[in-house]
Design a protein that fits this description.
With 726 residues, the protein is of the alpha/beta class. The protein is built from 29 helices and 25 strands. It has a 7-stranded mixed beta sheet with strand order 5-4-15-14-13-6-7, sandwiched between helices. A 6-stranded mixed β-barrel has the order 20-24-21-23-22-25. The longest helix is centred in the first third of the chain and has 19 residues. The chain is globular. The mean pLDDT is 95.
Length: 726
């Protein structure tokens, strides 16, 4: 018997519509859903991995309990009830001994739900949730809330000028990539700012090959030119901003001559690109992962980008940067409301690790953003989610595991998270995880991090559970395609089961996650099934709503000079800082490590540290790659395809060499997230997690991190490359 089932893909962030072909009760093919109201059949190569992922023989299908030494690969299969009972009992005992803050949590990048983890941890009483937030979108989102009270993805499809900055949609968001190519055909001007000649640069009107880590200097140079030449929106600046005079003073030193010297760019292209962006209206200036992972400059890059959007008059206009939710979408209960942040008392919030050093990204900054958001009508601007922009700093959390200071962190839970591959200094992360009294993992496969756990729970694929795809303009039902196989469960079932055993039953009234979606949709008079049947709901956007409502900031205006930053002791105006390890920041080190390193570039079909088990993905991309310019390789007597060593002062790894003229001869570009599921699980192998792990090269001590948020650098580091003889 053959049937088709509508569902969705969740192998990266977007929830693109999928159709599963079912034969005799088994999914045999996944393809794009042409009737999906948002993605309309468009899917990327990752979606083709879904069937293999769903039925892969290495999937974790039953709860496992460690029975040998940690990391020995010795497990016993047990039932869900026994596993949850034992974990809950151990967590309760540790809470009574050390306090609730003894539990830490790491989460991944949205393959599961996020609000449920926050809800559980708030009710348990711990403020110590951490992950890769500090380097991935979350800093930019928090900064935009402080600057103009909300976050914008940009309206690329109606824009006249699109600036792709630190973002490669051809490798990360196929919908945006298709939209960009279509826009280009209709005469839209495209500026690409990226140190690599990515496919987007091939269709650009201007490509700025900026030195990694210097993006904010270029943005400040743009602001100076735009102000000096009168290219800003004077009416908007006068009526709706504060701090313009201070901004003029702050950018005065960033002349084209100085910016060119910092960024590896020519003065002429700096000036021409600033003029093109400011004079072509409306314009969209994209967010990009590449700017959030720049260490000391990450936060101020986000600030400068927000300021450019504002002074050029592109906020809340069609084709620019729309702000706020629209009705009826805004009436739907949001994930921020499901987090139940009010359950965590002030005395526990004060114990959040790292918030003393990085207050803007901890409870102090989040509470300020939230208070200003509440000045606006409910449903107009989504509250800043604590799960995104209010986290403990991972460096401090793992240091507390090892040292017991400022208090002992003796337990941790990771859900769809692989901290050995997602956090810097993996060897310290390894030592910290090994030191714990209790480590619990909810995961799809046995990963290097899961191999160190005491209990491992089986997670279901996205097609085995449901979700709401809730954006500013639409809400679409994402139905499950198949029932969960074996004993796999979604993260809601995991957290609810654990929460009920720890006295939280009244806060988990919904038996299933589908009932949660019904609860969220009740304000608009729909059930999840009804939303799916009518193919989503869409709001009608009105623009320049700030003219009636203002902005969700302390002043009610766009804060070019940020009051929140000033109150927290941070720089209230954007500033460029030279990195501790850079050609200009440490010339002596540069002599020993003469190349500038970037890591973290996306590549198809894999996503971060995932899909390494899947034969379809590995056949296409079998080895970790490092890119060098042919001239650089020739100088070092290196040839395409050989394995080479890449070193920074932090450590060394090995990767297979790929030659490319798409990067500057002074640079190295290497892939992140590499481990080898085909290698033995048990120590000392641990899936060979340290041999090609890019994060071995990356530091996260305070001198390398942004002082406002604690973003650590995965880019703009100094390195050297060497042949591996024999």
């Amino acid at each position: 018997m053959k049937t088709q089932v509508r569902t969705y893909c969740g192998l990266c962030h977007p929830r693109c519509g999928l159709v599963l072909d079912i034969e005799n009760g088994r999914a045999v093919r996944a393809h794009g859903d042409k009737h999906h109201p948002v993605t309309r059949g468009l899917v990327c190569p990752r979606s083709q991995l879904m069937i293999e992922h769903l039925y892969h023989p290495d999937r974790i299908n039953h709860p496992l309990k460690r029975i040998g030494p940690r990391g020995s690969g010795q497990w016993q299969r047990i039932g869900w009830d026994q596993a949850l009972d034992e974990v809950a009992g151990a967590l309760d005992a540790l809470r009574k001994r050390y306090g609730a803050e003894t539990l830490a949590f790491t989460h991944g990048t949205s393959r599961t739900y996020h609000w449920d983890e926050r809800r559980f941890n708030n009710l348990f009483g711990t403020p110590n949730i951490c992950g890769a937030n500090n380097i991935c979108m979350c800093p930019s989102q928090a900064v935009e809330y402080a600057t103009y009270g909300g976050f914008s993805w940009g309206d690329m499809r109606h824009s006249r000028c699109v600036v792709i900055w630190g973002y490669a949609p051809s490798k990360s968001n196929l919908s945006d990539w298709a939209g960009l190519m279509q826009a280009k055909k209709h005469g839209v001007k495209v500026i690409v700012v990226d140190p690599r000649r990515i496919p987007e640069a091939e269709i650009a009107d201007m490509w700025l090959a900026v030195r990694p880590g210097t993006d904010v200097a270029l943005m400040l140079g743009w602001i100076r030119i735009i102000i000096e030449e009168g290219l800003y929106d004077a009416g908007f600046v006068e009526r709706w901003t504060v701090g313009f005079d201070e901004l003029k003073v702050a950018v005065a030193a960033y002349t084209p001559v100085r910016v060119a010297a910092i960024t590896w760019l020519d003065e002429e292209e700096i000036v021409a690109s600033a003029r093109l962006y400011a004079s072509t209206k409306p314009a969209t200036l994209t967010w990009g992962f590449g700017t959030d992972k720049q260490g000391v400059n990450a936060t101020q890059t986000a600030r400068a980008r927000a300021i450019l959007r504002a002074i050029c008059g592109n906020l809340d206009v069609q084709g620019g940067e729309p702000l706020g939710w629209v009705e009826p979408v805004g009436s739907i209960i949001s994930e921020a409301e499901l987090e139940l942040n009010e359950a965590l008392p002030p005395e526990q919030r004060a114990k959040q690790l790292g918030a003393d050093r990085y207050p803007f990204f901890g409870y102090p900054g989040w509470e300020m953003n939230l208070a200003n958001n509440r000045k606006l009508p409910k449903g107009y601007m989504q509250p800043s989610m604590a799960g995104i922009s209010c986290v403990a700093h991972a460096h401090n959390v793992f240091a507390a595991m090892l040292s017991g200071k400022p208090y002992p962190v003796r337990a941790a839970i990771s859900v769809a998270s692989n901290p050995l591959l997602s956090l810097p200094d993996p060897k310290r992360t390894y030592a910290a995880l090994k030191s714990l009294d209790l480590y619990i993992v909810h995961e799809y496969y046995m990963t290097p991090s899961a191999a160190l756990a005491d209990y491992v729970f089986p997670a279901c694929s996205t097609v085995e559970t449901s979700q709401l795809w809730h954006s500013m303009d639409f809400c679409v039902a994402c139905p499950r395609g198949v029932e969960p196989l074996f004993e796999r469960r979604n993260s809601y079932d995991f957290w609810r089961g654990l929460g009920i055993r720890l006295g939280q039953a009244e806060y988990w009234p919904w038996q299933t996650v589908d009932e949660v979606w019904d609860y969220c949709l009740a304000p608009v008079g729909l059930s999840f099934a009804e939303l799916a049947a009518q193919n989503g709901i869409f709001g009608r956007r009105e623009y320049r709503r700030y003219e009636q409502l203002g902005f969700g900031t302390p002043s009610g205006k766009v804060e070019l000079h940020s009051q929140i930053f000033a109150e927290l002791g941070a720089e209230p105006l954007p500033v460029y800082r030279e990195m501790a390890h850079s050609p200009a920041g440490n010339p002596e080190l540069y002599a020993e490590y003469p190349l500038v390193l970037i890591t973290g570039s996306r590549f198809m079909p894999m996503y971060h540290s995932e899909q390494r088990q899947l034969a379809s993905a590995r056949n296409r991309h079998p080895d970790p790659l490092v890119l060098l310019h042919p001239e650089t390789a020739q100088e070092m007597n290196m040839e395409e395809g050989e394995w080479i060593r890449i070193s920074t002062p932090q450590g060394s790894i090995r990767m297979r060499l790929r030659l490319s003229e798409r990067i500057d001869p002074r640079m190295v570009d290497l892939e992140h997230g590499w481990w080898f599921p085909e290698r033995p699980e048990a120590e000392p192998e641990l899936f060979d997690v340290f041999s090609s792990n890019a994060n071995i090269l990356c530091p996260d001590s305070p001198e390398f991190c942004s002082p406002e948020i604690g973003s650590w650098p995965h880019s703009a580091l100094l390195c050297r490359v060497d042949k591996i003889e024999g």
